[in-house]
Amino acid sequence: LRTAYEPPLAEAIAGVGEPTVARDGTTRGDTCHLDVVDRWGNIVSATPSGGWLQSSPTIPALGFCLGTRLQMTWLEEGSASTLQPGKRPRTTLTPTLVLRDGVPVTALGSPGGDQQDQWQLLYLLRTLVGGYTPQQAIDAPALHTTSLAESFWPRTWVPAGAVVESRLGEEVIAGLEARGHVVTRAGAWTLGRLSSVGRDPETGVLSAAANPRGMQGYAAGR
Which domains does the chain have, with CATH numbers? Predict the structure, then answer.
């Protein structure tokens, strides 16, 4: 049996698990995401990112920091992500394609560090299960957990932590707190950077949706 590794508790800083985004949504540079689809059904989901030097730990003996995605490795012994020769660093980048009967119908993704998968899960549940349109799914109140150590140094985490948009509603928030979640209200429109495109293989109709938060996302077609 392997003993579980528990990351040390670091002092929390004002962030949402992204190396360059403050809790109020203010950015000083960020990953970007792009989805493209054409009339023939060629579809692309891409999340270019790298070089987060401002959030990378410095190696004192060498005088430089772990750039790009090598910063995802841990310099402490005992972690599954401890820096070792030949080990590939993990990544938070998760551009996503959705297929129906083997045919791609949707491309989606988001900047957002450890929140990328969490925000995309909200989108997928809302569109595939809840019947939301893509834009409705993106606009709906977002939330994510902070109870796992962040991928980015200084790897803060909040046991049982959850960050929510206040639009989630006091009744739902109270329900989360009653279940033991430590809830942080992040403002009404602060979480999520999602965009998506789609193509109906039966009709050929194209669609696109973009995140209104931060006024940096766009949906366009021609």
Answer: 34-215 (3.60.20.40)
